[in-house]
Design goal:
By secondary structure, the protein is of the alpha+beta class. The protein has two domains: 3-303, Rossmann fold; 325-423, Immunoglobulin-like. Helix content is 23%, strand content 25%. The protein has helices at 3-21, 73-79, 82-89, 119-135, 149-160, 189-192, 200-209, 235-247, 295-303; strands at residues 33-36, 47-51, 62-66, 92-97, 142-147, 167-171, 220-226, 256-258, 264-269, 278-283, 325-333, 337-346, 356-360, 366-371, 374-376, 381-385, 398-406, 415-419, 422-423. The strands form three sheets. A ten-stranded mixed beta sheet has the order 1-2-4-3-5-6-7-10-9-8, with helices on both faces. The radius of gyration is 22 Å and the shape is globular.
């Protein structure tokens, strides 16, 4: 059986379910999907369609929405809610189209799995840079999502281009590097069948090896999978969680588990709020036909594109008595960087309504990103402050945050912690 027959035979039924199951919500505004040509380096001859909502502001956010095998950019535009959500929240959407036989994206070749290595990822990033230059989109709010082949490509793009994408959401995908082949084939049956398992460290190393020397922040990741997926089987869901929690230096134990809908089980890693480093949603009894229902809206919330509303009124910051806090500081280091998980225990008898933890980073250590806190400045004597959802800490309770940093050889732990100006015990 030739490659085209294998790909189409494996995925055509699932793609049919996908199209049938998606909520078709084309935008009601006057904006139209437009094809763009001549957008830059495009080694695999991808096509580009662009949706720019009416009324986008200056430096708008940008979302890349990547289709499934046998699909196209225009089909993903008309069959998903991302364009109508773009109308509501005023972000631009790029819809790439694969043009090879089977209309799958290259997530398997050595070229595709390397930063600036060639193939489809290079063409998609050219589309992003075109929109950044032509429409002034915000590089700090550039995201990617996709389903099936597009979910696999979401994993690939976050691994290849952590400097381009700030977060991704993969529907029915597989980990970065899982589909890798060296024989010229673009189909990996062992991966598709959920038969490839690795340790978190091994999965994380595949991502880090895609862009040697990169030491900046890593994109946040949201993954979705149905338990009855018979095309890209459900074990890939846990392997993705292993990979991206390791990339962020996080524990495999969720910080929070809940059920936002009847058949959804959502786990969050590295925090409990909406924009955590890693979020995973398992859908009981669901097959290879995502996204559907309110899933696209949940992805937009994970990206932070639905943010807005009035600024809360500041409240006075309680100052605990000296010694009324305890700090746990755990590091995971590698050759040029590290991640740190920090837990603050409120050992006083009074609640905190906000917190600011001061500490000293050893020489040569520089913070590049943080989650569940803001950290300023990036080195030396720094202060980590709570974000909107985790300022309250009851007596006897604790709160956690984390950050990623580079180092020049000194991997010593931070020291001299103070909470709201009072030394911790």
């Amino acid at each position: 059986m030739n490659l085209r027959a294998r790909i189409v035979g494996a995925l055509i039924a699932a793609a049919t379910l996908l199209v049938a199951g998606l909520i078709a919500a084309p935008p009601a505004a006057s904006a139209q999907l437009t094809e763009v040509t001549g957008f830059g380096t495009n080694p695999s001859n991808l096509r580009m369609h662009l949706y720019v909502p009416d009324g986008v502001g200056s430096r708008p956010p940008l979302l890349v929405a990547v289709h499934y095998c046998t699909g196209s950019g225009p089909a993903f535009y008309s069959g998903t809610e991302f364009a109508s959500l773009a109308d509501r929240y005023k972000f631009i959407v790029i819809y790439p189209s694969a043009t090879r036989s089977g209309s799958c994206f290259d997530v398997s070749s050595p070229q595709a799995l390397r930063h600036d290595g060639g193939s489809d990822p290079v063409g998609i990033v050219s589309m992003v840079r075109y929109v950044q230059q032509r429409y002034g989109s915000d590089p700090d709010r550039t995201f990617v999502t996709g389903a099936s082949s597009g979910g696999m490509m979401t994993n690939v793009l976050l691994g290849d281009y952590p400097d381009v994408f700030k977060a991704g959401a993969a529907y029915m995908g597989v980990p970065f590097g899982c589909f890798a082949t060296t024989d010229g084939s673009s189909w990996n049956s062992a991966c598709a069948n959920g038969q490839i398992t690795k340790t978190p460290q091994q999965w994380g190393d595949l991502v880090r090896a895609a862009y040697p020397g990169y030491s900046g922040p890593r994109p946040r990741m949201q993954v979705w999978h149905g338990t009855e997926d018979s095309t890209l089987r459900y074990p890939n869901f846990q392997e993705e969680i292993k990979q991206w929690t390791n990339v962020h230096g996080l524990s495999q134990t969720p910080s929070r588990t809940d059920q936002p809908q009847a058949n959804w089980t959502r786990t969050r890693y590295g925090g409990t709020g909406t924009t955590v480093p890693v979020e995973a949603i398992s859908l009981q009894g669901v097959g290879h036909n995502l996204p559907m229902g309110g899933m696209a809206a949940a992805t937009i919330a994970f990206f932070g594109l639905d943010a807005g509303g009035p600024t809360p009124t500041p409240t006075p910051t309680p100052t605990p008595e000296p010694g009324a806090c305890r700090v746990t500081y755990k590091m995971n280091s590698w050759s040029t960087g590290f991640t740190a998980e920090v837990t603050i225990a409120n050992t006083s008898s009074a609640p905190l309504s906000s917190w600011a933890l001061g500490f000293t980073l050893p020489a040569g250590q520089t913070v590049t990103s943080a989650w569940n806190a803001t950290i300023t400045p990036s080195g030396g004597q720094v202060t980590a402050r709570n974000v909107s959802y985790n300022g309250t800490v009851a007596p006897g309770a604790s709160v956690s945050f984390g950050f990623q940093a580079t180092h020049t050889g000194n991997t010593s732990a931070a020291s001299a912690f103070s909470l709201n100006g009072a030394a911790c015990g």
